[in-house]
Amino acid sequence: MNICWYDQQQLGVVIDAMVYDVSAALEALPPALYPAAPGDMLIAHLDVVREAITRVLPGATAKPIDAVRFLSPVANPGKIIGVPVNYADHVAEANADQATFTDRYKGNITEQGLFLKAASSLVGPAEGVSLRFPERLSHHEMELGVVIGKTAANVSQADAMSYVAGYAIALDMTVRGPEDRSLRKSVDSYAVLGPWLVTADAIGNAQKLDIKLSVNGEVRQQASTAEMIIGIAEQIAWASSYYTLHPGDIIMSGTCAGVGQVLPGDIMQCEIENVGSMTVAVKSEQG
Predict the structure, then answer these.
(1) Which tens digits make up the pLDDT trace of 100-125?
(2) Same domain for 58 and 200
(3) Are 123 and 204 in the same domain?
(4) Domain for residue 41, yes or no?
């Protein structure tokens, strides 16, 4: 099932290039309490919501996907986790250009460690990326986004994939410079997720998906998730050994070579096999 948030925070299901308004399914969610439990409420109750979607879908109105503004398919993640230099070709790319990537990229993935992006940096594809520091390099890094579906702490690699709610296309936008990754990657709008959440049961083998990013029609990044140095299951197990993962937490699973600068007016086109495609505009912070 392809589940999205769109337009005026409506809940949708995408079927055959049409978006069906299934917002009535939200009535299946339990009453909100304060303080709220950690995690995204819809993702935490995804099975219940999916059953409700099936009930309301026959009477739902629909719009073509081209007429819809897609927001992030996860509304309230507790944290966004990044996996650094997780493709060998990107390792080589970073090592060959220390002036741009700095020596923070030295060492293997486990030596560098995971990093966090602020949840406030998250946007959907229709909202676009706003460049706050036009005098500095901002690079695109396209990745497979892995959305956690249930609370996970110290899970084994063998059990890790059972904690996945689904997948989406992710952009880990980055300001280049000497500061810590988490600062440079947490600028408002520098985490893009979309265009919808494809539930895990609809994907099959997420470790064998083609990915591609183009800027203004020029292909810049192209790889397969099979080329990851550390696979998705190991990422989940590793992350959960340091902190508890909650429903709606997002793992950006690493990018391949071809990362590059974007400027206001650029259009990024992102595609992941069996997940979908999304178009993301780059603009100045003033619009």
Answers:
(1) 666 665 678 888 899 999 999 999 99
(2) no
(3) yes
(4) yes
Assigned domain for 73 exists: no
The domain of 165 spans 80-284
Predicted confidence at residue 111, as pLDDT, reads 87
End position of a domain, from candidates 41, 67, 93: 67
**CB proximity list for 228: less than 8 A, separation 6 or greater:** 86, 87, 207, 253, 254
Q: How many domains in the chain?
A: 2
Regions of the chain short of the pLDDT cut 70: 89-91, 93-106, 286-287
**32 and 89 fall within a common domain:** no
pTM equals 0.95
Q: How far apart are the first and last CA of the chain?
A: 34
Instruction: Assess whether 40 and 133 both reside in one domain.
Output: no
Residues 142 and 89 placed together within one structural domain of the fold: yes
Domain boundary among 67, 90, 119: 67
Yes or no: say if 231 and 286 are a contact pair by the CB < 8 Å rule. no
